[in-house]
Design brief:
The chain is mainly α. The chain contains two helices and no strands. It has one domain. 89% of the residues lie in helices and 0% in strands. The longest helix is centred in the C-terminal third of the chain and has 35 residues. The radius of gyration is 16 Å and the shape is elongated.
Length: 64
């Protein structure tokens, strides 16, 4: 697993947090929610291959 993916996830988390707070304070709660949802989806797409690899490794381990 790469260390860079952890930094990417952290950067997206910080960016989404700041954008969400700015949008909430300007009265745009719906856009803040959509921003948070978009950040979650982006991170989920980045992490899905690693989760798949984990399940494949566990499956291989129990087939031995």
């Amino acid at each position: 697993m790469e260390v860079g993916i952890i930094f990417k996830i952290g950067a997206v988390g910080i960016l989404v947090s700041v954008l969400s707070q700015v949008l909430k304070h300007s009265g745009r709660e719906e856009q803040a929610f959509l921003t948070s949802l978009a950040g979650l989806i982006v991170v989920l797409f980045w992490v899905l291959p690693y989760i798949n690899e984990l399940f494949e490794t566990i499956k291989q381990l129990f087939l031995l």
